[in-house]
Specification:
CATH class of chain A: Alpha Beta
Helix content of chain A: 25-40%
Order of helices and strands of chain A: EEHEEEEEEHEEHEHEH
Oligomer: homodimer
CATH architecture of chain A: 3-Layer(aba) Sandwich
Radius of gyration of chain A: 19 Å
Largest sheet of chain A: 6 strands, mixed
Distance between the termini of chain A: 51 Å
Strand order of the largest sheet of chain A: 3-6-7-9-10-12
Number of strands of chain A: 12
Largest interface: A-B, 39 and 39 residues
Number of helices of chain A: 5
Chain lengths: ~190, ~190
């Protein structure tokens, strides 16, 4: 950190920044860009669900245009992403944290955990994508693994050590800044054969 | 139709109404109620996606409450329903029509057809649920069937005769007013064995 006169601070880029192509994009942007690539290249079909909104009032200023003038955010009852890849139903949630040592489970709502547990039970491949922003590391953790951890541990967080051990590091390229389907391919397709 | 003085009209219920348990509920309400039952009974997990909305302006009248004061409906780029049943990825769209002889394909957006084609190709079980309100008949039509029809026919509609031939009549009970998973079970699970 270099201090400048006048209290301005200069942010020193982590070295890994030079190696990544993401350049400050959010995890959501990275996943959306990757999903666009998967769709365009006909690799798989995964979409982010729209944010659920409670609409209270709608105006019709012209015949064809409805303008929502009062609405509120509702809590999502499911995860953010769903799709299909080689006949596998995919269902996952993506989260970022600035924490360097653990992922706090409070970042997930109980109904999201319930949903991941339910779809996992019914045969979807359910998982979390967690990005540690400060470490610049992104992991895919399968629901079967972290649900078991949650059920047997007293801790209300996933330690980075456990994540590095059980999870899969997600690779980032320019075209696929969050290439989670490569992991699904390796773990769920290749290992099954 | 009985005419009353003062221009009031009395609506005569169709006879079939007495036989059904739906009692004027919309197809969407029927599917949501059925999905709630599937979830509660741990049969499968299917959810309706939220309506996509473009948010333009948000007020914060209090610290915890965000009020959306300007927003617009966006066109959905996918289908309305997604889920998982016995490891099958499900993806479908539901439509009602008052037409008695055909389902007009104009009721489906091109990107919805493209989406159904894509997920069908990647191994999801994709389908349409079409309710003919006047006939009080609801059909499940698999994407592989109607996509083939669309690709080989010049018609811009699905005739009821063709639907009755190729589609599956969806049964309605009080607890499962649109029991489409029974059809998935019969066609995709039992017939596979």
């Amino acid at each position: 950190m270099i201090k400048y006169p006048g209290g301005k601070k200069s942010y020193k880029k982590p070295d890994s920044f030079a190696l990544t192509s993401r350049r400050g994009m959010s995890l959501e942007e990275d996943i959306n860009k990757t999903n666009d690539y998967y769709l365009f290249m006909d690799i798989g079909v995964v979409h982010k669900k729209p944010t659920p909104i409670q609409i209270v009032n709608v105006d019709y200023p012209s015949r064809n245009k409805a303008k929502i003038t009062e609405a509120y955010f509702r809590q999502a009852s499911t995860t953010d992403y769903q799709g299909v890849y080689k006949s596998i139903a995919l269902d996952f949630e993506a989260k970022e944290t600035k924490n360097k040592t653990l992922f706090p489970l409070a970042a997930l709502h109980q109904h999201q955990l319930d949903h991941l547990r339910a779809v996992n039970k019914h045969g979807a491949v359910a998982f979390l994508i967690i990005r540690f922003n400060t470490l610049d590391e992104t992991y895919l953790i399968f629901a079967k693994d972290f649900l078991q951890y949650i059920d047997t541990s007293e801790q209300r967080s996933l330690p980075i050590k456990w994540i590095r051990d059980v999870g899969y590091l997600v690779e980032s390229t320019f075209k696929k800044p969050c290439d989670y389907l490569s992991i699904i391919e390796d773990v769920c397709i290749k290992e099954k054969v």
